[in-house]
Design goal:
Helix content: 25-40%
Distance between the termini: 35 Å
Number of helices: 10
CATH superfamily: NADP-dependent oxidoreductase domain
CATH architecture: Alpha-Beta Barrel
Radius of gyration: 19 Å
Number of strands: 10
Length: 324
């Protein structure tokens, strides 16, 4: 495994991380036994960078990881997000940028994971009601107390990154990034590079779209049809892009997920995709992306097929909660 330094930390991480969200109910039910076996298989194959959140499964994800890392803690780097607090009636999420909330969720995360310190503690969203400097100040105190080694941000704008850096070093940004969602190229990645930060690309397979999970509008489940890119006015255009990428992948020949992950890794050594896997076969298929070598002509062709802004519709219906 070709490990690389993650941002300004002293961590050497695998070029692909493992997103653990799907192990706690996202994208359909998961089996704990298979999830733990998948985590162990990832460790055995050299993957040492996990992404999790206090919100995943209301703590289930942390408890699952705690079982998987028993006896292996020193080999694993854990990036844990704060999640966002629910409204009292659980009808929706609020931003969680208050120092009190961040302290509480950090301490709860430590208890569930069974660790002394979070390797990287990440605020899931910049809270529009709390100055980012105040939020980062609260996280900085967690570092001073030894409860977190480093702190990070998720879905933060370039402006918020620069403001946060005036308070305490921010070692990484996590943001949705893929051929399907190239928003970070509009300034977020540049801001990270100004400070030597790492960049974690979540949703690297377009939340399933670039995995070819759906081949027609009829196959899209009801709960996804209200998402902007799956709406009737957008979906056929987006399936046209998918067909072109699938055809290009067959020419290589690699699977489309492997092609999409290889494209991300080709954007720079500071870009770490974190595809989510909850089964060993899925994990092993994704890891074959490490063997894919894309030429400059390949990358140019992929840019022709899906340049920034090519996908019809915004990436989420909650754009007010991202890139703040």
């Amino acid at each position: 495994m070709d490990y690389r330094r993650f941002g300004t930390t002293d961590f050497m991480v695998s070029p692909l991380g493992l997103g653990c969200m799907s192990m706690s109910g996202a994208y359909g039910p998961a089996d704990d036994t298979e999830s733990i076996a998948t985590l162990h298989r990832a460790f055995d194959l050299g993957i040492n960078f996990l992404d999790t959140s206090a919100n995943y499964g209301n703590g289930h994800n942390h408890e699952l990881i705690a079982k998987a890392i028993r006896g292996r803690r020193e080999r694993v780097i854990i990036h844990s997000k704060s999640g966002s607090p629910r409204t009292p009636d659980a009808s929706g999420e609020r931003s969680g940028g208050s120092p009190a909330y961040l302290t509480q969720v950090c301490e709860e995360s430590l208890a569930r994971l069974g660790v002394d310190a979070l390797d990287i503690f990440c605020m899931s969203r910049v809270d529009p009601n709390v100055p980012v400097e105040e939020s980062v100040g609260g996280m900085a105190r967690l570092v001073e107390q030894g409860k977190a080694r480093y702190i990070a941000l998720s879905e933060a704008s370039a402006a918020s990154i620069r403001r946060a850096q005036t308070v305490h070093p921010i070692v990484s940004l996590q943001m949705e990034y893929s051929l399907w969602s190239r928003d970070p190229e509009a300034g977020n990645i540049q801001a990270c590079r100004e400070f030597g930060m790492g960049f974690m690309a979540y949703g690297p397979l377009g939340q399933g779209f670039l995995a070819g999970v759906y081949q027609s509008a009829a196959e899209i489940p009801e709960e996804r049809r209200n998402r902007p890119r799956y709406r009737p006015e957008n979906v056929e255009h987006n399936f046209g892009l998918l067909r072109q990428l699938e055809a290009f992948a067959k020419e290589r020949p690699v699977t489309l997920p492997q092609l999409a992950l290889a494209w991300l890794m080709a954007q720079g050594n500071d870009i770490i995709p974190i595809p989510s896997s909850k089964t060993r076969p899925h994990l092993e298929e994704n890891l074959k992306a490490l063997e894919v070598r894309l030429t400059q002509d390949d990358l140019a062709r992929m840019d022709e097929i899906m340049p920034p802004g090519a996908a019809a519709g915004p990436r989420t219906s909650e754009m007010s909660r991202v890139n703040v």
